[in-house]
Amino acid sequence: MRAPELRGRGWLNTGGKDLALADLRGKIVILDFWTFCCINCLHVLDELRPLEERFGDALVVIGVHSPKFEHERDPVALAAAVERYGVHHPVVDDGDMHLWQQYAAKAWPTLAVIDPTGYLVASMAGEGHAEGLSRLIDELITKHEADGTLHRGDGPYVPPAQADTLLRYPGKAIELPTGNLLVSDSARHSLAEVTADGESLVRRFGSGERGGPFTEPQGLLLLPAEVAERVGYDVLVADTVNHQLRGLRLESGEISLVAGTGKPWRSAVDGPQEALGADLSSPWDLAWFDDRVVVAMAGIHQLWWFDPQQKTVGVYAGTTVEALRDGPIPDVWMAQPSGLSVGGDRLWIADSETSALRYIEAGVLHTAVGQGLFDFGHVDGPAKEALLQHPLGVAALADGSVLIADTYNGAIRRFDPATDEVATVDSGLNEPSDIVVTTAGDVIVVESSAHRLTRLAPGVVQTVAGERHKTERPPSPVAPGPLTLDVIFTPAPGQKLDTQFGPSTRLVVSASPPELLLAGAGSTTQLTRGLVINPDVPKGVLQVVAQAATCDVDVEFAACHLTRQDWGVPIVVTADGPSRLPLILRGMDEDER
């Protein structure tokens, strides 16, 4: 089919020019449907970088930003995200989700491939497609060079002007024993030690270049002194984009790798693993809890533990399903946990994609504030009615209450367990991402998109009635009663399904609310499932996790691959809705192309 025209509210990284498909004729185009809150979308940005470098004169990547949260509809916030994450290709602002619907996207991220003559030739959801895309691009180059329809040359990307500030999109911060602050200077790919007032640089750790010792680092943890003495480093660093943990010795500035292979996590491993042999996934924050390090593994919606002395890691909480479900750990659901703080016997968690404040106590996960993946806003009052919007940071206070960096509301919120109430203590901030409570009792906010540390005035409390929002991502209509769920999967070029160790596919289905499904929930090895939709439940979300194992064909030392995607599919039950719901795990089959 012909690719739909590219229309949006505006363009970034084009020097002010609006692009049309006609401007891209002769190039292979990848449309990357993303939203900047989504960790899987950020993974895809990194997967696309080598393809852009390798095929630069034949390939054009276009980011299509189709927002989930209300804050992401702000063009200024989008421009900041494009700089923050080093997006070096044009981006179209799809604020009204027009292109999302035109290209039938159902999940973040989704990739669509357009050939040099303007035809849509492939579509795929999720991450992990770099190798398949590389082979597809090679095939398209061969075909269209032979046809004379491929035109090599520079693409339409125009880099923006560079800004000069002390910090650039800082992520997290801690107080050092000297009273200085250590900040993860994420967009500068380094750590910055600054004076206690946050105004002057003392020293910097790391090369400052993407791919160096740090790439977009986030969480920092000052280890207990006795542990630091044994392991030989003082600070543990969540090296987020490198999918690793690193140690920093403050006296010498020595940086060491302590966990992670550098490869993103793709499949589960039973039991503890040797730390340096484990695949991690976007570690975002760190806390010392239960006599070990707890890691907010944002990329796979879990918490992991790390023992720096035994040099082992393992799963602490979460199943990788992206949703909100409480209960005894580890069999719980989270969605991109991004902030951790310990208060007494509780580990507090900023669970960003569910816009929730949660905590673990005595081995059980609880939700203090938050209602689910698609409910968010800025509402104070009783915790069961209060709403947050994509919080990234949390700080436990001595009185038992908790401060929340309510990032997309630009606010600092406070939850008081004694009264079960939520209040706003400051607002008008620019994407606050972390909170530091110093030994002197000062509260310092990492105001990420303002590129600074901000000291809060004590004792200020506001009450915000605010607005309630739901994600405006269009729901999929379905008929009540029997519904066939089809996950369409075609192996990437040069690969086949791998059945040497048993079934090559797996499908897990659940629903929110659970009563939405009368039948069909659970796990099977088939990618087609018969469901029964409850006619008495008008709407809800289907949680679908699909994976497929493949291996290379016609290769002496064949590599194995695992393709996996989680969907939270909003549905609305309507009498005239379809009785089949297709989802694409990778590529399209030949009939659909």
Could you describe the 3D structure shown?
The protein is globular. Helix content is 9%, strand content 40%. The longest helix has 18 residues. It is mainly beta and 593 residues long. The strands form ten sheets. Strands 1-4-3-2-5-6 form a six-stranded mixed sheet.
Q: State the end-to-end distance.
A: 7 Å
The Cα radius of gyration reads: 24 Å
- What is the helix tally? 5
Please give the number of β-strands. 44
- Content of β-strand: 35-45%
Oligomer: single chain
**Poorly predicted sequence stretches spanning 5 or more consecutive residues:** 587-593
Summarize the structure.
The protein is mainly β and 593 residues long. The chain is 9% helix and 40% strand. β23 (356-361) and β24 form a beta hairpin.
What's the layout of helices and strands?
Blueprint lengths: L10 E2 L15 E7 L4 H16 L4 E7 L9 H10 L6 E3 L4 H5 L7 E5 L5 E6 L4 H18 L22 E6 L5 E5 L4 E5 L6 E5 L14 E3 L2 H7 L3 E5 L4 E5 L6 E5 L13 E2 L8 E7 L2 E6 L4 E6 L4 E6 L9 E2 L8 E7 L2 E6 L4 E6 L2 E6 L5 E3 L3 E2 L10 E4 L5 E5 L4 E6 L4 E6 L5 E6 L5 E5 L4 E4 L12 E3 L5 E3 L2 E9 L5 E3 L7 E8 L4 E3 L2 E3 L3 E6 L5 E14 L7 E14 L6 E7 L7
Parallel strand pairs: 2-3, 3-4, 35-43, 36-44
Antiparallel strand pairs: 1-4, 2-5, 5-6, 7-8, 8-9, 9-10, 11-12, 12-13, 13-14, 15-19, 16-17, 17-18, 18-19, 20-24, 21-22, 22-23, 23-24, 25-34, 26-30, 27-28, 28-29, 29-30, 31-32, 32-33, 36-41, 37-42, 38-40, 38-42, 39-41, 42-43
